């Protein structure tokens, strides 16, 4: 297990607004996503005094379901990141030997460690080509397990920052994207 230090990353919101910095804010489009679900960052309309960037929401999904912004992952990756986050936020505590503890609390530890406002798990439908999605992330044909950082129905204030997204991108070694939510029922 490798150390994971998102707080050592550059905070993009502190950069002056220039064309080159906006280009750096663009998260590369994954080959697994169509152009309509490309990840794009723009300055927030609601914070004129401080430069903050938010994700551009994709157009409404044809099926009417919500769009989820996040990363495809496997449960073991979630648990590993939860373990690392636990050790960072509670270094004096010993992690219980009970695997259920980390399985039940990984999302909370990641949320606290990265100061995320949204951090959940859901299933998403693959939009476009799935060739660059690791097979272990697929839970059935055309569907993936996701670490969700934002939903298209959430307010801008809950949008993750580029540095939070970048931190997870470096840890997971895959790009985030927009996915159509697959309801649990």
Helix and strand layout, with pairings?
Elements: H1 19-25, E1 41-43, E2 53-55, E3 67-72, H2 75-89, H3 99-114, E4 120-125, E5 138-140, E6 143-151, H4 162-172, E7 177-181
Antiparallel strand pairs: 1-2, 3-6, 3-7, 4-6, 4-7, 5-6
General shape: globular
Helix vs. strand class: alpha+beta
Roughly how many Å is the radius of gyration? Answer: 17 Å
Q: State the domain count.
A: 1
Portion in helices: 25-40%
Secondary structure tally: strands: 7
Which ranges are low-confidence, i.e. pLDDT below 50, for 5 or more consecutive residues? 6-36
N-to-C series of helices and strands: HEEEHHEEEHE
- Strand proportion, as a percent range, falls in 15-25%
First-to-last CA distance: 35 Å
Q: Quick one: biggest sheet?
A: 5 strands, antiparallel
Question: Please, could you describe this protein's structure?
Answer:
The protein is an alpha+beta fold and 185 residues long. The protein has one domain (6-181). Helix content is 26%, strand content 19%. Strands 3, 4, 5, 6 and 7 form a five-stranded antiparallel β-sheet that branches. A two-stranded antiparallel sheet has the order 1-2.
Which key features would you list for this structure?
globular, 7 strands, 185 residues, two-stranded antiparallel ribbon, alpha+beta, 5-stranded antiparallel β-sheet
Summarize the structure.
The protein is of the alpha+beta class and 185 residues long. 26% of the residues lie in helices and 19% in strands.
């Amino acid at each position: 297990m490798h150390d994971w230090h998102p707080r050592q990353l550059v905070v993009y919101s502190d950069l002056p607004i220039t064309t080159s910095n906006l280009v750096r804010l663009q998260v590369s489009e994954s080959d697994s996503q169509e152009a309509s679900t490309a990840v794009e960052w723009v300055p927030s309309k609601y914070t004129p005094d401080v430069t903050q960037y938010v994700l551009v929401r994709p157009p409404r999904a044809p099926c009417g379901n919500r769009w989820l912004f996040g990363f495809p992952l496997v449960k073991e990756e979630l648990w590993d990141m939860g373990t690392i986050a636990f050790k960072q936020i509670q270094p004096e505590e010993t992690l219980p030997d009970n695997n259920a503890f980390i399985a039940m609390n990984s999302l909370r530890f990641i949320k606290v460690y990265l100061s995320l406002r949204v951090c959940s798990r859901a299933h998403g439908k693959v939009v476009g080509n799935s060739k660059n999605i690791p097979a272990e992330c697929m839970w059935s044909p055309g569907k993936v397990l996701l670490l969700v950082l934002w939903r298209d129905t959430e307010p801008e204030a809950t949008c993750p920052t580029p540095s939070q997204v970048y931190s997870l991108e470096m840890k997971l070694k895959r790009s985030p994207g927009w996915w159509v939510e697959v309801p649990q029922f």
